[in-house]
Specification:
11 strands; alpha+beta; 5-stranded mixed sheet
């Protein structure tokens, strides 16, 4: 029996599968450990970041009550054992600390998922340069590692059971699928009329007494006849593959060129080349859709019509290059303040428009005043001198100042803008109610 190939293959496979199973289990556990470490800190960081705005408001306003609410809210996340809100002076505004869960596996958990390094979320506040504080949280290493330990145990047990079942199956499989079929196949090959028996298959001494040795002698009768046919097929197949690869490369190159061209065309069609904000065409097309959508759900929508004050004098006094710089600075200033959902576009010349949806009249007024004052504070340099400019803004809102019609809203906002110009410029003017 020791000379039978099925017996040898079973012994070899048994040893190999146990070694491979052990190796794969270790690799799987190691990868799972790495993923668990990364995901635990990432999830914790996302949970802490979700409260960033409230924490920043608590630090900025020095509001211990709000800080307590934020910390207690974060403390409901089971994996956190410590939560702190710290101001820019390093003082705790509020903190909670829980005793970590103790277990026989706590030492291993601390080694695998160290909780010494806190997760830090820096806090910023609009209008304040730099960080005003931070939120620090620390994880309970045992809770993080608990599920990892369970998965590791299941992985090891599952691998061990699979190896036992596989080894028993291979013992039967090799005999019925290898030895007996090979002997039977060898007898069928022996019935073929040999034409070219010159080339022989050589097997080592280890296999000469096995079924493989018997089959090798029989296969020698067919190898010569098959070799030429296989070579021809390989050459034809390779030529076909080369041709297909060449065609695929050509198609890929053309597809890339077309995609790049379409991207450039779309960018040119929707943005203003000088300032980089949306152009008038995009604003009117996309803005009309937004206004109709707000009308359907009876939500508010507002338009800010903005015009740089005395811009003609800027070009006349400082030159068109300076005028272009002011327009770009204006666009950059407003783009950094408005919300991501707001649509900001250059409507023509020195006139810009902003479409704001789902916002109260009070909030849009605050936004307009902030935009105006921020641009006033911008400083431009011309021939060694500092120069400041101003902007006038007209505000209209549906349904208070006009119906849900894009052109009517624009018309009412322009009327408010003209009123702001008449009243001395550098101001925000709100359209009268129900003017449309």
């Amino acid at each position: 029996m020791r000379d039978q190939i099925w017996f040898r293959q079973t012994i070899f496979t048994l040893c190999f599968t146990f070694f491979l199973g052990l190796t794969l289990s270790i690799v799987t556990i190691a990868l799972d450990l790495f993923d668990e470490q990364v995901m635990a800190r990432r999830n914790a960081s996302e949970v802490a970041s979700a409260m960033r705005r409230q924490a920043a408001q608590a630090v900025f306003n020095i509001d211990p009550a709000l800080a307590r609410t934020v910390v207690q809210g974060l403390g409901e996340y089971d994996l956190f054992k410590n939560v702190r809100i710290i101001d820019d002076l390093g003082e705790d505004l509020y903190k909670i600390e829980r005793e970590p869960i103790q277990s026989v596996l706590s030492g291993i958990a601390d080694m695998l998922f160290s909780s010494e390094k806190p997760i830090v979320v820096l806090l910023t506040f609009p209008g304040v340069k730099g960080e005003i504080g931070r939120v620090e949280v620390r994880l309970d290493s045992y809770l993080v590692a608990e599920q990892f330990f369970q998965r590791s145990f299941r992985t090891i047990i599952g691998s061990f059971l699979r190896n036992i079942i596989l080894s028993a199956g291979l013992l039967i499989l090799f005999y019925y699928t290898l030895t007996r079929p090979l002997i039977h196949l060898g007898r069928q090959i022996n019935e073929i009329d040999p034409n070219n028996p010159d080339k022989e298959l050589v097997v080592d001494a280890f296999h000469k007494k096995s079924e493989l040795g018997e089959m090798a002698g029989l296969l020698n009768l067919l190898l010569k006849r098959l070799k030429d046919v296989q070579n021809k097929f390989k050459r034809a197949e390779q030529a076909l593959v080369d041709q297909n690869n060449k065609l695929e490369n050509m198609v890929a190159e053309r597809t890339t060129e077309l995609r790049d061209a379409n991207i450039k065309l779309k960018l040119l069609a929707t943005t203003d080349p000088l300032t980089g904000v949306y152009n008038r065409r995009f604003f009117e097309e996309f803005g009309t859709k937004i206004v109709h959508n707000m009308q359907r759900y009876e939500r508010t929508v507002a338009i800010l019509s903005c015009d740089l004050d005395n811009f003609k004098e800027v070009n006349d006094s400082f030159g068109h290059a300076m005028g272009d710089e002011v327009l770009r600075g204006f666009a950059s200033c407003f783009s950094s303040i408005i919300r991501e959902s707001d649509i900001f576009a250059r409507h023509g010349g020195e006139e810009f428009v902003i479409l704001l949806s789902e916002i109260s009249l009070e909030d849009v007024c605050v936004m307009g005043e902030r935009l105006r004052s921020s641009f006033n504070e911008m400083t431009f340099f011309h021939e060694g001198s500092d120069v400041n400019f101003s902007v006038s803004i007209g505000l209209s809102m549906a349904p208070f100042h006009s119906g849900y019609d894009m052109h009517d809203l624009m018309k009412v906002a322009d009327m408010a803008l003209y009123k702001a110009k008449e009243l001395g410029r550098n101001r925000l003017e709100i359209a009268p109610r129900n003017i449309g």
